[in-house]
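Hi,

Apologies if this is the wrong queue. I'm a grad student, and the batch job for Molybdopterin-dependent oxidoreductase from Curvibacter cyanobacteriorum produced an output file that my downstream script rejects. I'm not sure whether the problem is my script or the file. Here is the sequence I used:
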Amino acid sequence: MNLNDAPRETRSTCPYCGVGCGVIIESRGDAITGVRGDPAHPANLGRLCTKGSTLHLTASPQVNQQTRLLQPLRRLQRGGPAQALAWDQALDLAGQKLADTVQQHGPNALGFYLSGQLLTEDYYVFNKLVKGLLGSNNLDTNSRLCMSSAVAGYKATLGADAPPASYTDVDHAHCLFITGSNTAWAHPILFRRIEDAKRARPEMKIVVVDPRRTDTVELADLHLALQPGTDVMLYHGMLHLMLREGWTQPAYIAAHTTGFEALVELVRDCTPERTAEVCGLRVEDLCEATRLFATSPATLSLYCQGLNQSSSGTSKNAALINLHLATGQIGRPGAAPFSLTGQPNAMGGREVGGLSNLLSAHRDMGNPAHRAEVAALWGVADVPAVPGKSAIEMFQAAADGEIKALWIACTNPAQSLPDQATVRRALERAEFVVVQEAFATTATTAYADLLLPATPWGEKTGTVTNSERRISRVRAALPPRGEARHDWAIGVALAQRLEARLRPGQPTLFPYDTQDALLGTEAIWLEHRESTRGRDLDITGLSYALLDTLGPQQWPWPEGARAGRVRLYEDGVFPTPDGRARFHSAAFRPVAEATDREHPYALNTGRLRDQWHGMSRTGTLGRLFGHAAEPALQMNPQDLAREGWAEGSLVRVQSRRGSVVLPVQACAEQAPQQVFIPMHWGQEFVSGRDADGQPHLGVNALMPSTFCPQSKQPELKHAAVRLSAAKLPWTLVAMAWLPAGQVLSTREALKALMGEFAFSSCVPFSDRTPLEQADQQATGLLFRAAAHQAPPAAQLLALEQALGLDPQQCLHYADPQRGQRRTIRVQTLGGARCVTGWLLAGDTRAQAWLRPLLQDAQPVSVDGQRLLSPGAEPPLAQAPRSPLVCSCFGVTEQAIRGQLAQCAGTEDERLKQLQGALKCGTNCGSCVPELKRLVRWVRPSTEAAELAL
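Support response: The file is valid. Your script probably expects a header line. Output copied below for reference.
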């Protein structure tokens, strides 16, 4: 970056969750220097969460040079070194391999697996390439893992995959029914809007349905902590109560729906008593939630993966929508069933038919007229009628040898798919694997025969659609780095090579300009736009120019319209053959994998506040590990006491498919007999081996591949597991500050060592404040390991060298007979001697005081040898390091508790005083639910209370 270059600003869209926040990218020269929320974007009005507000840091030159894939690479042998290729060589090889596979085995021997983080234009090209040019429907995306049950639920009831609400409906709702969603963490900026609405209208009631007491529950008037997987029974029981109490709307049902009689018969036996027993709820709470839902002037449901990721996902979605139809809570301000998309462009992918059973513009593959319309638009003879393989089926088929070649773009199935043993077998058995990716560090890249560098956020151009059907422009602040190319351009180049082999002499189906990104993407988008003409998502009245002028807009916006539609079905007419919505009757089915004596705990998975998916982007920043610093298994304190484990003990979590070892963490918000592991912890961050040498493949290795028969979305939210003490007596902990340009490359180098232990984890950390005072860049790595016995000394030496704990700079203590080793590095920072790195092996008790000594950069005056001696005591009074609550300003729980003791008044007044003093919760707001919880827990000191009086 040249400081003489003029600063620039580029309006774009955040690449994380489905809220679709607008961002303003600040750049100078060839570097992105900052990011802030776009106040003109209607989705966020200038706000950003912890993840969005650090986007510029994940795109820094230091991160890019350590993580980015910047040139095509080929492996001649799986697991071997990768060799650089020119783009033409790489694409010629890919075209030849795919064409040969088609000619030898047919097009269905290919599998394409894409991502909800691709842009709509990227999606469209690959959809056309696979279903139009190759004549196969084997194209699916990771949206299958998060949104396909929502798609199926909407289509089964309302007739089309179209969320009928807008974010503005939060401001009009009298009852918010949040179910299967930790909105506070999964969609934080939408949750800020909910907080605002509750503050402005305290009479608005919020009901949260979730087995865990999440941060979302902190805002709730009523929490239904149902048993996992019992959602359908809950909704059926609520409908039973509505019928009994006369809370349905017979006139609306008669005028606008069909199928109600069959549903009434189905829920007849779902009495309050039976429902409460099955769901694990109090009858009184069930009745109150039902009353609020049915009798509120406007009820808005918000739901996400808790409903979708289930073997009954479609039934859960449809049963909730049934309640809206039965009470007429739809088509009015503040009244609708509102599915929240998980990824930034899961909606855009659905719009172009980016699932193996869909076609462009919400067309059905099973409809001959729809297939003919798409074939005519694309200029091909026909589109295959038989649905292709869904995500789970695709990788099972590859593991079975049916699919010979896999093309994976912008996603990490070796971390995110369930039943990782099958996924890895698929990647190993496939004859040709292409990974099209921006990051070279994902688990999936290790299996690629061909790696193709793609552009990430900050370099991409196109469009995305958020949860409320709002289309936003994505704009590039910088040109592609290295030899990276846009995903759509890679697809076009591949398609043109395949055309030369499969339909020689014919005009290209892909006449898009790959030299000019704006012209190319706009031409693709215009073709997509034409495919929507006359459809429920008609956008023929929109254009890039209009989006550039007016900003993000909601569909439908047909030609001749003057605005998009804020909410759907206001006239009570639905996109079904008879114009009526359909009640969906499906009996309650329990989770696919029930707990039993062998597997007595119910495992739930979900998100962390400051991390995203497999952490290929957020995992590059130590500061985003401040709130949840390490992988852990959360369980109820009563269960922890009954098992006889101390917090931090290593526990083996074993399902019917695999196992993982994790430290256990007491969590009062977790229900008894239920445990929780965040979905993000893959093999890149937590690893190890069983006694028989089988590798640990992360949390998703535990999850079943059982899927919903209608949506084919897997049951990623629940597995039955057994827990046991890991019994690994030899332990190791190491921490070291490293130069910012080496942290991530060092972590990559340590991956090989991680797999040599029975348990290991490696995560970055940072603490901006202490080392900023010493004029240092505060970045480092925390490495943990455990084993049945001490490993060879050479293994420990390699670990020390990787962490920069070189013998010439460090002091050592070693006792090979007892398996003990200690290393410490003391350096002068800002005129004071500070511990900047250490390793403890065999006896790790000193970590309790060495960790804050290093992380807080506290000066030490004692000789380093004294810190190394067995049984060494801390050189000064040392309290355990307090957990971080506010990532934006580095505010710990200890500091918050101390300040709250000085704050008096009402809870709102104390929160404002706290924020005024420490700034916590005043930037992105992600920590506000936790701050409110602390306000309730921490009482003011006697002196503060007296002063307030």
